[in-house]
């Protein structure tokens, strides 16, 4: 009979111990789950179900990565590299770095088979780094990403309804963005299968749009439009500022953002030991190839100067090549951004859910809908913050404040992999990457954190660092000392009844350990 180990409780302490069968009893908790009346022996309970297969996993990676980035980042990469050739090199290196980072995460995902990605893995370095990541991601990084992608969606959807040089007004863009967020959170709260089906559809739609750009680019190449791509010209004027390339990588890696998203839903993956690395190996190189081909296509139609002057690179490309069918490009970008927003919402909700389950957020966020088996409160919370972030209008500066923070945590996560390798070399690792890969990713993370600060020192980076540390104000009383406000239980019960949600029971089975 399949052995079942229930991971019970909130606000308990983690331990990392080797299992008797050679596997890893990773992050097992020691405290009981408040309010869970489900018997351990029957193996039943309200919990996340394994419904995400290989195809959906690939679609989630590809769909989340291909969003607004490929349509706006080429301009930023070219600005910092100063040449077509070096911009293409940066795009390639971004893909390689994303793939290596994801493979490191795949190893961690099998050693620590829990949803939450960085949050779960940073526990290796202690509860404080894990909490600070959850704090920063839940309150700012994830909601702001969702808001930015939704605003891009709103801008392209509103474009056909407003003619003139001024373009659509901000109020129209925000309305479409808000509608997109509300629709996406409804889909994700209603059903995991709905969410993954939407992801599959829009992933196919956006790849089709990129293929159109690539095919047009190949036609232009056959016609001899290669003057900006020849080796003798493409690297002319390349930037020699080593630290400026850090900002170029920021621009490129924004388009690759999502390479780690599958690790946020490890508990919902079917056969995670097989499907997690396969989805990474297939999904990220596919995106890298598409990005390189799309950038090449751009330069068959536009000169570097024209690309830098374009407010919307893909729209400029379409206007010059598709004629009366150029309207397809805003539609394609809208599909791309909607799919990316759906994937971002899907994974962001899981991060909040896991953080709350471990006592790092309020308890109601750790609950799952009793009928639909979705983390309804966590999804609603993330979307509410994203809607609030639409109000200020321009929050790109806010994202820039924390752009370096992401790689600070990525570097810390890879450091956790190295720590586990050193402390527990005897643990069973179904996926084990060569040691050189995490070392390269760690060095790259340090460079990406430091280089932009050296190139353009600004108070924004200091503010970002101080905001991260501000999470300790909540950590010390409410997490470390476990202080609970007297009225919180009543509020939790009220929302539990209102939303029809219940605490979860996390079961670790032998199927998970040997998948």
Automatic annotation (TrEMBL):
Pfam families: AA_permease_2. One of its GO terms (cellular component) is apical plasma membrane. It comes from the Eukaryota. The chain crosses the membrane at residues 52-72, 84-108, 120-140, 175-195, 201-221, 233-256, 276-301, 373-392, 398-420, 432-454, 460-479. Residues 1-33 are annotated as: Disordered. It is found in: Apical cell membrane. This is b(0,+)-type amino acid transporter 1. It comes from Acanthaster planci (Crown-of-thorns starfish). The gene is LOC110974840.
